[in-house]
Design goal:
There is one protein chain. This protein is mostly helical. The protein has a domain of 85 residues. 77% of the residues lie in helices and 0% in strands. The protein is built from 5 helices and no strands. Helix 1 packs antiparallel against helix 5. The radius of gyration is 16 Å and the shape is globular.
Length: 136
């Protein structure tokens, strides 16, 4: 039995672009960037600028694209067509995959600020890109 799923490339590209913009805004200094940097690097992180090179930017874009593509395939493979069911899937993906990863990270380097900023970012991001994928 072959599994054939049609990818809506427009939705995937739009959701990827929105995910990138959302991430850059979320982790910007005026929003949560300062808190995140302090959590990652202590008080010295408050004024530390994150250096972005082409390799880091490529990894961020590629990772966002893969996340959106796989989430789209996951939603379509479950034959989900309703908005509420898709958002429930996004919530379950966060609860089953993203939250455990963050909790494991907390056992390695406990820091409530980083946990909160990353965890809430991941949840809002999944809900946002799911809404876009279902709407387009």
């Amino acid at each position: 039995m072959a599994l054939t799923i049609a990818v809506d490339w427009t939705g995937v590209v739009v959701a990827t672009i929105v995910a990138l913009i959302f991430g850059f805004v979320w982790y910007s200094r005026p929003v949560f960037g300062r808190m995140w940097m302090e959590g990652m690097h202590g008080a010295r992180g408050r004024n530390k600028a994150m250096k972005m090179n082409a390799a880091k930017i490529f990894v961020i874009i590629f990772s966002s694209f893969i996340l959106v593509l796989i989430l789209d395939l996951f939603i379509k493979s479950l034959s989900i067509t309703s908005f509420s069911a898709a958002l429930l899937v996004a919530l379950l993906v966060w609860f089953g995959f993203f939250l455990p990863k963050e909790l494991i990270g907390e056992t390695q380097t406990p820091n409530g600020k980083v946990f909160a900023v990353n965890g809430i970012h991941d949840l809002v991001l999944l809900l946002l890109i799911t809404a876009i994928l279902v709407a387009i």
